[in-house]
Amino acid sequence: MSDTPPRLGVNIDHVATVRNARGGAYPDPLRAAKLAEEAGADGITAHLREDRRHISDADIDGLMEVLTVPLNFEMAATDEMQKIALRHKPHAVCIVPEKREERTTEGGLEVAREENRLAHFIAPLRDVGCRVSIFIAADPKQIEAAHRIGAEVIELHTGAYCDAHAEGRVDDAQRELEALRKMSTFAHSLGLEVHAGHGLSYDTVQPVAAFPEVRELNIGHFLIGESIFRGLTPAIQEMRRLMDEARQ
Prior knowledge:
Blueprint: E1 7-11, H1 13-22, H2 29-39, E2 43-47, H3 57-66, E3 71-75, H4 79-88, E4 92-95, H5 115-127, E5 131-136, H6 140-148, E6 153-157, H7 159-166, H8 170-189, E7 193-197, H9 205-209, E8 214-219, H10 221-230, H11 232-246
């Protein structure tokens, strides 16, 4: 644990969403990634979905070429994605659940029921030097399973907390936040590095950033949306300020 503020990973998926809405070349996710670097992002996150609804293979190729901060490559546990990750060898690989009909990632990965398959799936990724993270709910069974299969990192899904907060369900938000706090401590006790993300905004980031066990927050959709009004650099800098303030 540390008083050092968590790292900020900026997810650029939805720059690609806007680009793809018109089928052209703009806005360019690579330009967004470089701006995020300059604004103080500690890493860039990009999710290459099976249906390529936002980030493309060419985007991943470009990110690997131009980034000077680590790339966190989000992907489903499929053979195709494993081959892509093994070819690029990004700094980090985050295994996420994926359903074609969902708008965004709706929950954490079911690790406990697929322990054997996932253990074999992540082994080659670890062998080539990728840090393997598992995106999971704040559930002790899933955390224990992630630890058993050899993951070095877990990323706790903060969506339920953020949704409750946005909908004014104060008691539910506090309950979800307390679960995140307890599971951060539990995962840290097992030797796992703890990250968190999904749905975080200026209004919800500080309680999570304040957890001493949390080493990284990955934030995307809110920052890309806020950049329409503030610009990407000021939007990121404000998030960085709030995260820093949470640990003071």
